[in-house]
Specification:
The protein is an alpha/beta fold. Helix content is 33%, strand content 28%. It folds into two domains: 207 residues, 3-Layer(aba) Sandwich (Rossmann fold), CATH 3.40.50; 58 residues. It is built from ten helices and 14 strands.
């Protein structure tokens, strides 16, 4: 059973459609990246999954519950970090977390101490003195402190410096390694590529792709430069997936598809030099937004 599953999920505000029939599936024990530009509908989807918004159509199940009708039960085992987290300014960081742990009726002191140490956050200071990055760290701690089965994080790396982003990513990987599930939104492909094993791409309220990072990488373009000795075959004989130009004996272009096909063809040619860069997922991501019919929900 999927931890998160929606079917034809739709949402409108004042008769204005925002989500259009989303079929989202998040399996247990996965790190799932929900990817899309600002305004694509990511936050609206996450709020529906948490039971903070009611859907206009379709169905949603989270931890086996209907999030609108059974949201209180589901949220006991969910850690949530909103995209714009707000705090009580007069409380210290520690008092804030103690209050939230009391609401959950959990003893979270050990986990709070460990996370505060890893994130280098002084919990004895009033929240009003915190920088934006420190407030984000506090939000991360409150989402993780009760060790929930499901983490729903809305752009969690916002305002974190690169070292703290590494700490966050390590914590999320550890959570998944012991069987928890992470669903987080981002508009940064490099973050999703580095961290996730599954990805959903949202565009204008439509889930246009749902696949693994490996499958996405296999379809991304590799930039290729080839230098031939005399007697190389013409470009017409190159395998499908090659796109480029010939500059004498030097070819410059890109290749999409299995590298084995390109290498098998090159093995029959008088190659002097070959340069292949890693797949550029940024180019593939842009293509989804440049082409009206790019991709389809799977």
């Amino acid at each position: 059973m999927n931890i998160v599953e929606t079917h034809e999920l739709a949402k409108s505000f004042a008769a204005q459609p925002v989500l259009h029939g989303i079929d989202l599936r998040v399996a247990p024990g996965t790190l799932y990246g929900f990817l899309g530009p600002n305004g694509a509908g990511k936050t609206t989807t996450l709020r529906i999954l948490l039971g903070l918004l009611d859907r206009s159509g379709g169905t949603a199940r989270v931890l086996g519950c209907d999030p609108w009708r059974q949201g209180a039960r589901a949220r006991t085992n969910i850690g949530y970090l909103p995209g714009d987290v707000r705090w009580y300014p007069r409380l210290t960081g520690r008092a804030t977390l103690d209050f939230l742990a009391g609401v959950r009726q959990r003893d979270c002191r050990r986990t709070i101490h460990r996370l505060a140490r890893r994130l280098e956050l002084d919990l004895n200071l009033p929240v009003r003195t915190y920088s934006r990055g420190m407030k984000q760290k506090l939000g991360i701690i409150q989402a993780l402190m009760h060790e929930p089965a499901l983490l729903i994080l809305d752009e969690p790396a916002t305002s974190l410096d690169p070292l703290m982003q590494d700490v966050l990513h390590d914590e999320l990987r550890q959570a998944v390694a012991i069987g928890r599930t992470v669903l987080f939104s981002s508009h940064t492909l490099s973050e999703v590529q580095q961290l996730c094993d599954h990805v959903g791409i949202l565009r204008a309220g439509r889930l246009i792709e749902q696949t693994t990072i490996d499958a996405l990488r296999n379809r991304a373009l590799r930039r290729v430069e080839i230098t031939f000795a005399a007697g190389a075959a013409g470009m017409a004989s190159a395998p499908r997936g090659w796109h480029g130009e010939k500059r004498g004996d030097h070819w410059v272009g890109s290749f999409s598809g299995p590298m084995s096909e390109l290498l098998a063809w090159l093995a029959k040619q008088p190659v002097l030099d070959l340069v292949v860069t890693p797949p550029d997922l940024e180019d593939l991501f842009r293509a989804y937004y440049a082409t009206p019919d790019a991709g389809a929900s799977a």
